[in-house]
Amino acid sequence: SSDNNIAEVQNNQLIIKTSGVVTITATAAQDEKYEQATATKNVTINIVTPTITMLPTVDAITYGATFEGATLLGGEANVLGAWQWNDDLNQVLDAGMHNLKVQFVPSNTAWYSVVDTTISVTVNKAASILATAPIAATDLVYNATAQTLIVAGVAEGGTMQYSLDGASYTSDLPTAISAGTYTVYYKVVADANHTDVEVATLTATIVQAPLTITAEDYNILYGEAAPTYTATY
After folding, report:
1. Is 114 exposed, middle or buried, given 0-12, 13-18 or 19+ CB atoms closer than 10 A?
2. Which of 11, 56, 82, 139 could form a disulfide with 72 if both were Cys (CB 3.0 to 4.6 A apart)?
């Protein structure tokens, strides 16, 4: 063999040690009938690609976390070896399914090649947070105009929405004109990476305005029109 690290002859047999191109020279010694003869051949020993019979898995994470430090579980091949990550594990992925790169590294890399492939990973949605709940506006007194019933809430991972009927929601703050007590429904409508916050309620009240009637004393004769009084609030 031209390279004993790749192959060598032992007891008239060719022993393959690793992949590569080997130049083999065979020699027949001279005897009483024949002269010495020599033949040379190049032999290519190809590295083998392992067969993956089962991909590894990894536990799901929640949005905001990364796969840094996540352990690859299981995975099988037709030769001995180990699985390892081959991707950026510090990236924050959106909620949903993603493919990340992994490698199968054979124990004997002289004979078998490293296999690059991908596995599916799951990123679960994180819970939205109602950071500050809305509160009822105070000192609301009827004045014949629309008044805002609440002070807005603050959400993380979604949008605050409000309703006066529990069916139709909008991000606009609810208003009312008439005096009375109103039930305000509110919830957090999550973005693509979070889950919704369930509906809750609060009550807000517009109190009746005080009414003042201004009148003067009148002396009228029978048959005359009654005086007009003015009411203000």
Report:
1. middle
2. 56
